[in-house]
Amino acid sequence: DSGVTQTPKHLITATGQRVTLRCSPRSGDLSVYWYQQSLDQGLQFLIQYYNGEERAKGNILERFSAQQFPDLHSELNLSSLELGDSALYFCASSGLENEQYFGPGTRLTVT
Amino acid sequence: DQQVKQNSPSLSVQEGRISILNCDYTNSMFDYFLWYKKYPAEGPTFLISISSIKDKNEDGRFTVFLNKSAKHLSLHIVPSQPGDSAVYFCAADGANAGGTSYGKLTFGQGTILTVHP
After folding, report:
1. Which of A24, A26, A43, A82 is least surrounded by CB atoms within 10 angstroms?
2. Do B43 and A2 touch (CB under 8 A)?
3. Which of B34, B103, B109 faces A48 most closely, judged by CB atoms?
4. Collapsed DSSP state (helix, strand, coil) of residue B84
5. Interchain CB distance below 8 Å, A99 and B43
6. Which residues of B touch A104 (CB under 8 A)?
7. Does residue A97 sit in helix, strand or coil?
8. Contact A102 B34 (CB under 8 A)
9. B16: left (phi > 0), else alpha (psi -120 to 50), else beta?
10. pLDDT tens figures, A6-41
11. Is-contact A78 A12, C-beta < 8 A?
12. Which pairing describes strands A87-94 and B56-59: parallel, antiparallel, or unpaired?
């Protein structure tokens, strides 16, 4: 158990819809990262937050957005969903040493 | 453009023998490297890391070697155990002045390791 929690574990929704994925980092970690793992792309970095502020951005689509709240939990919002958005979404957190600890992931299926 | 490559999709070894997982990278700005292990239906688990100022880092049965001139790193597991069977990911990032990762990890495609009893 990494100490990072993600909800929900599974999500099935239709094209065009909007969903929110939630992540709680390990106690004391200020950095939160979001990754997408799809079959053909592997693990892709989406975005990083540090203590509420956006710190780094990867190839995150404009339809996707994230935020980190004062209690340090983070949410990833995916809108206008397409079939190709079906993937595993992982959240990770890190402390001072920056080794990232991953949550169990949310499996999103868009039908 | 795949900046981190794990060219072997799978590796099979006998229990007790050495497992060697390889990783190549193309981006010379990468300065910090990590290995993760992943079981099905779980998130990646951090194993070991290495900064470019070192060429070797050891933690128990796991050793990571870095050859910066060849842009190549490898993970050695000795002795291999059936519980090591998982997907292994190599990841890379730039490093800050303190030598630790910035955090924007670029992952390889993974190598499936199977350790037979």
Report:
1. A82
2. yes
3. B103
4. helix
5. no
6. 41-43
7. coil
8. no
9. left
10. 999 999 999 999 999 999 999 999 999 999 998 777
11. no
12. unpaired
3-state class (DSSP) for residue A85: helix
Q: Which amino acid is at B97?
A: A
Q: CA nearest A49: which of A109, A9, A2, A91?
A: A91
pLDDT in tens, chain B (117 residues): 689 999 999 999 999 999 999 999 999 889 899 999 999 888 999 999 999 899 999 999 999 999 999 999 999 999 999 999 999 999 998 766 666 666 789 999 999 999 999
Backbone Cα Rg of chain B: 14
| Residue carrying the six token digits 């590796």 | B11
Q: Which residue of A has its CA nearest to B89?
A: A43
Q: Does B110 touch chain A (CB under 8 A)?
A: yes
Determine whether the interchain pair A90/B36 forms a contact, defined as Cβ–Cβ distance below 8 Å.
no
Q: Tokens 């799809």, residue?
A: A38
Interface test with chain B among A100, A102, A106, by most B beta carbons within 10 Å: A100
From A107's Cα to the closest Cα of chain B, the distance in A is 9
Q: Contact A9/A106 with Cβ under 8 angstroms? A: yes
